[in-house]
Amino acid sequence: MADKRSGQAIHVPASAAMPPVASKVPGLAYAPHYLDGAPMEEVDGIRVVGDAEIGPQTVGAAVDFIDALDLPAASGTRHLIVGTGASAALRGGQVTGIVRLTTGATAGNDAILVRNGHTMSLPPFTSGAVNKRMWFTAKVSVVDGLGDGAVLVGLAPSTTADMDVEPTDGVYYYLANAGTDMKCVARKAGASSTIVAAAFATAGQTLTAGTMNELSVSMDPNGTISAYVNGILVGQLVGSDPNIPTASTLTVVIGRSTQSATARNLDCDYYLIAQEV
């Protein structure tokens, strides 16, 4: 939401504006909404929103793929498409607001959407301090060939170019080749901490080809990273964990690979990324 007259963002008060949802984390019955406190207006491009007198400042990007400028291309303005033989197209024209990523038809080919022009570093956790918050959410569908190739959705370096190998740094959901469920991990310098090992099973759901699912992570003022599947809290990682990539430059990375001689597809409806500055 935003005040169009002043151009200032209206921030949703933390833990107040949205009802709690059920949690699948042991010992935690309910949790705040996964976007609780995030800037809710859709940001066209990149800009700082907020004011010191009315709330935290944030920088972020939200894309719903209703504009041809959002279409990933090899030299795209907002998004790049990475991978041999990879292509991207707006499904059914601009009205649907869904971009389809398609791999080449050779084993090992990838189709990867990389945000161009927006990078971030997760803030280091400081004990006893009020730390910076962060939000990421994306709605995606493994259109076909579930079990053929890997899928990654989340934050990773802009140089990520191979879905079959996890990036050296990031916070992301990952489906390994031939897998049937996604894990959510924090990874720093090649070392990982698992936030949740079987995200869909923990949420009581099944990862199904052709079904849209919303995958989200947030970081609270205590530095805790929370993972959500379709709004259900499925795992947490404390802010002092050594594998949170606080020194890495990350961006939005969404993609998949194929391990057969068949081109495979991944749809993305929207994503939002924001953090306090």
- Please, how many domains? 1
CATH superfamily: Exo-inulinase, domain 1
Task: Indicate the overall shape.
Answer: globular
Count of runs of 4 or more consecutive helical residues: 1
Largest sheet: number of strands, sense, barrel closure: 9 strands, antiparallel
Q: Give the integer mean of the pLDDT values.
A: 85
- Give the low-confidence spans: 1-17, 42-50
What is the percent of helical residues?
Answer: under 10%
Beta-strand content bin: 35-45%
- CATH architectural category: Sandwich
Report on the architecture of this protein.
There is one protein chain. The chain has 277 residues and is mostly beta strands. It has one domain (64-276): Sandwich (Jelly Rolls). Helices cover 1% and strands 38% of the residues. Strands 5, 6, 8, 9, 11, 16, 17, 18 and 20 form a nine-stranded antiparallel sheet that branches. A seven-stranded antiparallel sheet has the order 7-10-19-12-13-14-15. Strands 1-2 form a two-stranded antiparallel sheet. 45% of the residues are buried.
Topology:
Elements: E1 2-3, E2 8-9, E3 21-22, E4 30-31, E5 47-49, E6 58-63, E7 79-82, E8 87-90, E9 99-102, E10 110-115, E11 134-142, E12 151-156, E13 170-175, E14 183-188, E15 191-196, H1 199-202, E16 213-219, E17 225-229, E18 232-237, E19 251-257, E20 265-276
Antiparallel strand pairs: 1-2, 3-4, 5-6, 6-20, 7-10, 8-9, 9-20, 10-19, 11-16, 11-20, 12-13, 12-19, 13-14, 14-15, 16-17, 17-18
